[in-house]
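Hey, I was hoping to borrow your eyes for a little while. No rush at all, and the record is pasted right below:
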Amino acid sequence: MEDGAWDLEAFKEKVPEKIVKQIVSIPPPHPLIGPDKIFWPRTANGDFSIKNAYHMLKKATWNEKDSRWKTVWKYQGPHRVRFFLWLTCKQRLLTNQERVRKGIGQNMSCLIFQYDTEDILHVLRDCSTTKDVWKYFVLKSCQELFFSNNILDWVNANLDSSSWTLRNGVP
């Protein structure tokens, strides 16, 4: 409208009334404060950044303070192995499932053994070939737990040398 007020009738045609009420409840900016501007509440200065938005979105799926992540990064091996472990825990190794998720593949199954889904646990632990190798090293009394953990707990348990009793001279 010409006087700077909201045209509520136009809003009501296109926006639910609940939202119109929320908009109307917001006081207009005071002229002494300066012009109205967009403010990003996730930063101290109010400026939006892709980095900050990314961290906000990832916060729900990854907690860097989780001690299980510290175990991965404190692993006393080559950096490339720590990075591989991190990619594994984040489920970002390029398995068939990940290829389909990224849109660069059409079939998420294991093409060798016809397993329904070739995910990280299938490749590293549950595929019949890798499972046979693990069964050779992990004592039978520990195998049920060994083969039942989720990926993050499984990697952490394997990095903790006291988690499994291994046989055949493997520490």
Notes: The chain has a mean pLDDT of 80. The chain has two domains: 8-58, 67-159. The two ends are 78 Å apart (CA to CA).
